[in-house]
């Protein structure tokens, strides 16, 4: 129920969708002669869309999230296990073209291949089933398993958790299927922006892990642009950052995490 509710609510209340819906209702009100209501809906929605679309507001929010956990540093100590979160594969394109098609979170798979090579005795776990509400149900884990050779990984090297649909289920289902010994050293691999929420959920599920963030979207010290012609890019950046922040709040309020903004 939580999974379905979160997907439906985000469909309507993601910032860009919500603002476009307000603008559409504003235009409809105008056509129906309700000019006062039209002004109340159109003006705020269009102004906010312009601000989000042309100013790097999403970039600044993303930067704050990505700075919570620094890049992992190899100190020479052995690693006993690695958990890699799903979300890096376009499952429909992969199935259609019978090839591994990565998306913007594909760095998670690159890190999985790298860590499997660097730590040959470590247990590598990939967790990810079908995380969409609509469309043909395809398992991300199944798609990756068919293309391990393309990642330079031997068959049988990866343990797959195939049932999870969101990050909380990643944590709970993986914890249930992996027996762990005391004092083992485990890494959690996911996108840097997603790491705070992921660490909060995994800690609450009983995992003691080290963060291995990948796929940074911000560039502190380099991205100094104020205006941009890529409105769609800024809108998506803002949507994704707000989604993570809402997820952090929901996890804390629901008791799925012990911290509002987890850190090291």
- Seen as an oligomer or otherwise, the chain set is single chain
What's the CATH first level of the largest domain?
Answer: Alpha Beta
Mean pLDDT: 89
Strand portion, in percent?
5-15%
Number of structural units classed as domains: 2
Number of strands: 5
Shape: elongated
Q: For the record, what is the CATH homologous superfamily label of the largest domain?
A: HUPs
The arrangement of helices and strands along the chain is HHHHEHHEHEHEHEH
Instruction: Return Rg in Å.
Output: 20 Å
Number of helices: 10
N-to-C CA distance:
31 Å
Largest sheet: 5 strands, parallel
Order of strands in the sheet with most strands: 3-2-1-4-5
Overview of the molecule:
The protein is an alpha/beta fold and about 260 residues long. The chain folds into 2 domains: about 1-65 and about 230-255, no CATH class; about 80-215, Rossmann fold, CATH 3.40.50.620. The chain has helices spanning about 1-15, 15-30, 35-55, 55-65, 90-95, 105-120, 140-145, 165-175, 195-205, 230-255, and strands at about 80-85, 125, 160, 185-190, 210-215. The chain has a 5-stranded parallel beta sheet, with helices on both faces. Helix 9 links the parallel strand 4 and strand 5 (about 210-215). Helix 3 crosses helix 10 and helix 9 (about 195-205) runs parallel beside helix 10 (about 230-255). It is elongated and about 70 Å long. The mean pLDDT is about 90.
Write a concise synopsis of the structure shown:
The chain is α/β, with parallel strands linked by helices and about 260 residues long. The chain has helices spanning about 1-15, 15-30, 35-55, 55-65, 90-95, 105-120, 140-145, 165-175, 195-205, 230-255; strands spanning about 80-85, 125, 160, 185-190, 210-215.
């Amino acid at each position: 129920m939580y999974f379905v509710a979160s997907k439906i609510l985000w469909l309507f209340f993601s910032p860009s969708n919500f603002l476009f819906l307000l603008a559409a209702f504003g235009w409809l009100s105008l056509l129906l002669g309700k000019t006062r209501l039209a002004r109340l809906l159109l003006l705020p929605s269009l102004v906010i869309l312009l601000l989000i679309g042309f100013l790097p507001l999403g970039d600044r929010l993303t930067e704050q999230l990505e700075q919570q956990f620094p890049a992992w540093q190899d100190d020479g100590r052995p690693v006993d296990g690695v958990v890699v979160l799903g979300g890096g594969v376009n499952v429909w394109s992969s199935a259609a073209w019978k090839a591994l098609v990565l998306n913007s979170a594909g760095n998670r798979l690159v890190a999985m291949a790298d860590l499997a090579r660097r730590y040959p005795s470590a247990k590598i776990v990939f967790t990810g089933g079908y995380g969409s509400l609509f469309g043909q149900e395809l398992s991300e884990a199944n798609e990756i398993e068919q293309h391990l050779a393309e990642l330079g990984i031997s068959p049988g090297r990866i343990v797959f958790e195939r049932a999870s649909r969101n990050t909380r289920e990643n944590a709970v289902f993986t914890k249930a299927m992996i027996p762990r010994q005391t004092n083992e050293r485990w890494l959690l691999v996911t996108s840097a922006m997603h790491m705070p929420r992921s660490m909060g959920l995994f800690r609450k599920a009983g995992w003691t892990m080290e963060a291995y963030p990948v796929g940074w979207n911000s560039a502190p010290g380099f991205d100094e642009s104020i205006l941009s012609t890529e409105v769609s890019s800024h809108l998506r950046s803002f949507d994704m950052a707000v989604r993570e922040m809402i997820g952090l709040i929901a996890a804390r309020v629901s008791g799925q995490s012990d911290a509002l903004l987890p850190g090291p």
